[in-house]
Structures are given as structure tokens and as C-alpha cells.
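Sample intake sheet
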Amino acid sequence: MQTTTQSRSKGFTIIEMLVAVALISILAAIALPAYNGYINRSKIKTAQADLIALSLSYENEYQRKLAYPAAGYSSATTPTLAAAFPNWNPASSDFAFSSATTGSYTLTATGNANGVNGCVITLSKNGT
């Protein structure tokens, strides 16, 4: 006597696949803005570290000459500052750096990349 067994195909149904795709898309919609926030915060932290390093270069100049650099730095930009302080190499390309000097200094980083456009960070001689 012979018995026949029906073989059942193993796999996913279209409904199961649609549910899985829907769940993945919901998770991605939640995770992507949070990830962008992390990236933007890291860009800002990098710019802050670059400003601190630049202020240390200014303070080093003060220690050597007992005066802050004034000539040519009243409205210096990133390339001018990098050339004037060879030990300062900004890690952030998402920010443009500038300085204002009048017997003291105020350093500014202005965001110029996606996510940090319009973000302005300043650091003055007294650390504010």
C-alpha cells in the first residue's frame, strides 16, 4: 500500500514579506533623524576642539611676544589662520574659521555644510 504525502513548500508568503518591509521602513524612519543628530553634534564638537586648539596657538603667541597677534588678523579667515599658525590644522571642513583681534581675540567658527549651516560658535580670550 502506497501513501502519498503532500509536500508543503517552505518559504515566506507575500504578506509576511510586506510586514517585514513595513517594519524595517518604520525603524529606518525613526533611526535616520537620530543618526543625523549624532553626526551634526559630532561636527560641532570637532569645530569646538578646533577653536580651542586655535586659541591655544593665540595664547602661545602671547607667551612668546607678550602681545596677541594683531597685524593682519583683524579679520583673518581659515587659510590665513592656518598659514599663520602652522601647528594649527583644523580637522573640521564643515566650518569656516575666522578671528577678530583688537588687543585680545575672538575666534569664530561658522557652519557651511549640510546640517550645520548657520551654526556659529565663538570663543573669546576669557574663555566664553
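Comment: DSSP finds two helices and four strands in the chain. Residues 41 and 61 are 30 Å apart (CA to CA).
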